[in-house]
Amino acid sequence: MALQIRIYPDEVLKKKAETVTEFNEELRELVNQMFETMYEKKGVGLAANQVGVLKRVVVIDLDSGKENQGKNPIILINPEIVKAEGEELAEEGCLSLPGLYKKVKRALYVKVKAQNLDGEEFEIEGEGLLARALQHEIDHLNGIVFIDRLSPLQRRLALEKYKKLKREYERKKGRR
Questions:
Q1: Which domain holds residue 108?
Q2: pLDDT in tens, 149-159
Q3: 88 is in an annotated binding site
Q4: I need a surface site. Which of 31, 70, 117, 138 has the fewest CB within 10 A?
Q5: Does residue 4 lie within any of the structural domains?
Q6: CA angle, 155 as apex, 47 and 57 as ends, to 5°?
Q7: Helices (H), ranges, the chain
Q8: Inside any domain, residue 5
Q9: Is 137 a catalytic residue?
Q10: Whole-number pLDDT of residue 172
Q11: Residue 140 labeled ligand binder
Q12: 137 lies in a domain?
């Protein structure tokens, strides 16, 4: 069952998610529903607070919406960036800010420490899009959305554009 994506400025998006301490069937079900939701919306990553659950859970699939979808899913419980190098400016979007895309500066390479669904620790390294997705989703767990990474002027302009996009979306939704 797909979950409802929380749309900015929903308060849950500004809250820091809590550490997962129970690795059980409920957690597995949440992860399955998050993948289903992400695939339905054609996103490449999703953090639990984007579906209203304040737990440190992230799912990523760089092949979302492609032929290989579901073949290389990434599940991160309690992820934490332990190393970041380089810098890259590239466009980002977010399922919680539909239709808005802006260039955001991120590390080009990251190493992340996390746990799997059984609570076992592991590390994952990423460059390019994977590094960006890891940073973007971990930001969500810390109550940060990508527009918070913009300069004050860029952020104000992005929010003005987003308000217009949101009004258009609501108008179209009302016509259905």
A1: 11-175
A2: 999 999 999 99
A3: no
A4: 70
A5: no
A6: 10
A7: 25-41, 128-141, 152-175
A8: no
A9: yes
A10: 78
A11: yes
A12: yes
